[in-house]
Amino acid sequence: MWHPWAKSTVRIHTASPNKNFSCSSFKDIQHLCKDETEAQIPKKSSIFHRVRIATAVLRSWSAQAARQEESYEASALEEPLTPSEPLISIPGAETRIVVYFTSLRVVRSTFEDCRAVRSILRGFRVSMDERDLAMDSGFLEELQGILGQTKLTLPRVFICGRYIGGAEEIKHLNEIGELKQFIEGLPAAEAGVCEMCGGYRFILCHECNGSHKCYSEKDETVGFRSCTGCNENGLVRCPSCSSMPV
């Protein structure tokens, strides 16, 4: 026979739970680990905050650049621009403008600079001596001797016998209004086009008729020789509208 069940008199003692920690399920453990991870990683600033900072920096930079530009323009207006090489001058050209340029279109940028400078200077309607290096290579040697340089860029401008500069200097002086001060007092240019040369400032040589060759029977040499009265193109400067080289 089985013994009847009876209540056990043995008591089971369990340890009292820690009051500071309670874990009812695994979800609480995951929640605690997640909180610790978020506490260690700093939160990133929002996109709107970063946009505000970038906008403020750009505004400060643009304001600083505007102040620098204003100060540069103010200094440029207060201090008149002086020629780049004021010690270089052409004697005998105190009453006109002398421009060394080229009419060849071999280098487009050079041709455009020469045309722009001549257009600016012609707008003042004063006496101007235009010396085309493409028409007479002697102008190149003349300019090299004046400036003391062998490699030159065109155009080169002299006003009242004083060297002013090239295309950049003339354009800048014209923009700030200083070019007019250099030209004031020069005699006015004659109206119309020269009837002798048609505005080209050169005519054919009368001795060789533009061939740059003359037949000679003098002395022991008989035959053709180079004409000494014209340039390599058989041209001479127009006596009516061109000033003689200095």
Annotation keywords:
246 residues, alpha+beta, two-stranded antiparallel ribbon, 6 helices
Protein described:
Helices cover 35% and strands 13% of the residues. It contains 6 helices and 8 strands. The chain has helices at 26-40, 47-78, 108-122, 138-147, 167-176, 179-183, and strands at 97-101, 128-132, 156-159, 162-165, 202-204, 213-216, 223-226, 235-237. Strand 6 and strand 7 form a beta hairpin.
Cross-sheet strand order for the largest sheet? 2-1-3-4
Q: What would you call the shape?
A: elongated
Continuous helix count: 6
- H/E series, N to C? HHEHEHEEHHEEEE
Question: Rounded to an integer, what's the Rg over CA atoms?
Answer: 45 Å
Could you give the distance between the termini? 152 Å
Mean pLDDT across the residues is 78
- Specify the biggest β-sheet: 4 strands, mixed
Got a strand count?
A: 8
Measured by DSSP, the beta-strand proportion falls in: 5-15%
Low-confidence stretches: 76-86
Helix content: 25-40%
Which class do the helix and strand fractions yield?
Answer: alpha+beta
Element layout with pairings:
Layout: H1 26-40, H2 47-78, E1 97-101, H3 108-122, E2 128-132, H4 138-147, E3 156-159, E4 162-165, H5 167-176, H6 179-183, E5 202-204, E6 213-216, E7 223-226, E8 235-237
Helix pairs in contact: 3-5
